[in-house]
Structure formats: C-alpha cells, structure tokens
Specification:
With 336 residues, the chain is an alpha/beta fold. The protein contains 13 helices and 12 strands. The chain has 2 domains: 255 residues, Alpha-Beta Barrel (TIM Barrel), CATH 3.20.20; 71 residues, GMP Synthetase, Chain A, domain 3. The longest helix is centred in the last third of the chain and has 20 residues. The chain is globular.
C-alpha cells in the first residue's frame, strides 16, 4: 500500500541529552517550533494536494522526542491533529520519540488522540556505543519501550544508525538483528554524518573519530536492507533527507542525496554477478534481464554498475522482463 506523511517537525524539542552526532536543526533545516495553528494549516494544505490519493496518509510529528516535550504543548499539537483522524481524512498520527520517554500513561494519552504509530530512535543496541554517543538510554530501554508499544496496539517503528562513534560493522549488524527480534512494523536506517557544531565534529577534527564513507556504508546498508526485507520488515527510510541546510553543515560521513538508490544498485550488481556466474558468462556481451522497475537500479548512478561489469570484461545489454522480481536477474550470452 502506498504511504504518505504530512510531516511536521518539532526540532530538538524534548531531548534531554545532547547526542554526539546531533545538530537537529541543521538536519531538518528548521528552527521554528510549530504551534497548533501551524498543524491545522499544514494538514489543510496537504489535504488539497492529496485529493484523490488512495493510499494511507498519516500526520507525522518528527524531529524531536515528542513524548518528552512539555505535556501541555504536546497535547495542543495532538488536539490540532486529532480531528482529521476522527473524521477519516487521515489514517492516524505518527510520532518519533526516545525509548526512555515511553510509559503506560503516555501511551494511553497518545491513543486518545488517534496516534497509531510510534517510532523509537534506538540508534544502536550496544550499550557501549549508546554511552559513547551520550544517548542517555540503554538497549534494555529500547526492548521495554518496544514491548509496551506493541502490547498497546500501536504500529512500532525502530530507527538505527550505522557508523556511529565507537561502533563497527559487526556492531551495526548485531543492532539490526536485535531490532528485528523486536518485530517492528517498520525500520529506518541512517548512516552517520558529521555535522558542524556537534561533539562528533570535534572528535573528527581531533582525529578521534573516523566516519564511515560511502564505499563502506553502501555495501553495509545494502546488506541491512536485504536482511530486514528477508524478515518482511519494510525499510521506510534509508539515508538522511536532503536539504540545503544539511549540505551546508556537512563535514564528513556517508551522505548522498540518493543513498537508498546506491544501496539498491549494489544489491542489483551482486545479483547480476551471481546470475552471470550461474550462466557461465565470464566475458563478452551478455543480455541481462530485469524487471522494468529495476532497470535504473541495475544500470546504477552514472552507469556505475555497467562500468564495473565492463571493467571485468562483460558488456551488458539490459533487457526487460516483467515476470522477474525486484532484485531478480536472468542472464544469457549474446550470440552472433
């Protein structure tokens, strides 16, 4: 089912900790704190643009720790959004918050206002990594909050970061496995980037932190994407949203405006290599069949995948076959 969010950002509001990586106002490109009137205006505007939309649309509060903000302010925002859920204009309200800002009382309140999905910023399931990055919560907090959310009937979303300070590829893979065990309905994966004005930037400047680059993050996140998909857990976001503010403050790290596409192209390249091997094709001209929707994934950014194959002696002719799955590849030797 198609999905759309009317996203309202509450930047750096409610967070009791200053995480090493966080300069949230630069990530979302917003400083202004929305009021109830802003919520109504945004939703009314979105309703006009979504006219005729047949998918699932939600009102989403992102950008801070929603359940940790001032309770009266939180309630005002929810009261502005709730009528649009009650009259059927939107399927529900989605919020993002911290694992240690969830308890039975706040979940009861959220349900009264039509909140249907709660995303937790888990980031890592390594207590060592969480402590090093000043997250202020533990892996056990993630497990407890996830259990409460699921038992109360909310849709559970979990967010993780790769390449954090004091983390490793092995630790990131372990985080993915532990998050999958919590049976979330959705996952978001954010490769760590170094933003000016953060503690991570200071660590990077001093040489105490070496951020993961695209050459490492793309293969890793391609693995994680396939892993979650194998568990039937949708990855609804892979990589940070692009913005002028983010690019202006970016110092280092695994950032690309089309990061997910890079990961999906990496998966297609791997499947193509396997298909060529199975077909016994090591050189020459090969006809490579993929689903029409996967042609761009196979070709890759700036035709990178075709170039990689060419460097290995294979000239690829891309063909379309609607019967093939998303990442499925079939190869044949071109005969003259």
């Amino acid at each position: 089912m198609k999905h759309a969010n009317v996203a309202l950002f509450v930047p750096h509001n409610g967070c009791p900790h200053a995480c090493t990586f966080c300069n949230q106002r630069e990530i979302v490109g917003q400083v202004y704190q929305p009021a109830a009137a802003d919520v109504r205006n945004a939703v009314e505007t979105a309703m006009d643009s979504l006219n005729g939309y047949t998918g699932k649309a939600e009102i989403a509060f992102f950008g801070g720790s929603f359940t940790a903000i001032d309770r009266q302010y939180m309630t005002e925002l929810l009261e502005a959004a709730a009528p649009y859920v009650r009259n059927g204009s939107f399927a529900g309200i989605r919020i993002s918050t911290r694992p240690d800002a969830i308890d039975p009382e706040v979940l009861t309140l959220l349900k009264q206002y039509g909140v249907s999905a709660i995303e937790l910023g888990a980031q890592s399931m390594s207590d060592e990594v969480l402590t090093a990055n000043r997250r202020g919560h533990t892996a056990e907090d993630v497990k407890i909050a996830s259990d409460l959310i699921r038992k109360q009937g909310f849709s559970l979303g979990l967010q993780m970061m790769t390449g954090l300070y004091r983390s490793s590829e092995a630790a990131d893979r372990a985080t993915a496995r532990q998050l999958a065990e919590l049976q979330p309905d959705t996952v978001r994966i954010y490769p760590t980037v170094v933003l000016k004005g953060t503690e991570l930037y200071e660590l990077y400047q001093k040489g105490d932190y070496e951020p993961m680059g695209l050459e490492t993050a793309v293969p890793l996140c391609a693995d994680l994407l396939q892993y979650f998909e194998s568990k039937q857990i949708p990855v609804i976001r892979l990589g940070l949203h692009d913005s002028d503010s983010l690019r202006d403050n970016l110092a280092a790290g695994a950032y690309h405006p089309a990061f997910r596409e890079l990961c999906e192209s990496e998966i297609m390249y791997r499947h193509t290599k396997e298909a060529l091997q199975q077909a016994g094709i090591v050189s020459g001209v090969a006809e490579i069949y993929v689903n029409p929707k996967s042609v761009s994934r196979l070709i890759g950014q700036k035709r990178q995948n075709l170039q990689r194959l060419s460097e290995q002696g294979v000239t690829a002719i891309v063909r379309q076959d609607i019967r093939l799955g998303k990442y499925e590849v079939r190869c044949g030797q071109k005969m003259y």
